[in-house]
Amino acid sequence: MFGLNIFELVIIIIAIIFIVTWIFGVRTHIKRGRGIQQQTLNTILLFIVSLLLTIFLKISPLHLLWMFPTSWILGVLSIAFPLSLLSIPGKLIRFVSCIGLDMNEMQRRRELVEERVLKMMTLSKEKDISMEEAREILIESGEWGKM
Question: Number of structural domains, the chain?
Fold first, then answer.
């Protein structure tokens, strides 16, 4: 990494910021009790692998300009075999993202989200309205609760 020009160094720094942002996004979703798609975790894994390959193989960081979009495409496609095998190491990203989170609090929030969705679905079917309209009615009536 000693022979990097300023442009290549900026690309590496942006790639690191990009990866950290995605990891904190996953952490925030998990903390709020929302689900995370396995493809998102697989994509982050591929971003990290791309960055590490670039650094340890000492190839030009300019390769990240095609490796990151390719990682995103492969991550999205990882729902089907053989790319679904990425889910095995991809679960490591979920584990790392959850370090330091209170599991009881996350479970409580997840149950609250599920309860809200159930209320919205019930109200939506009863009054033949959209889920968004049901959400607004629940908020106005005070049944939405706080997270």
Answer: 2
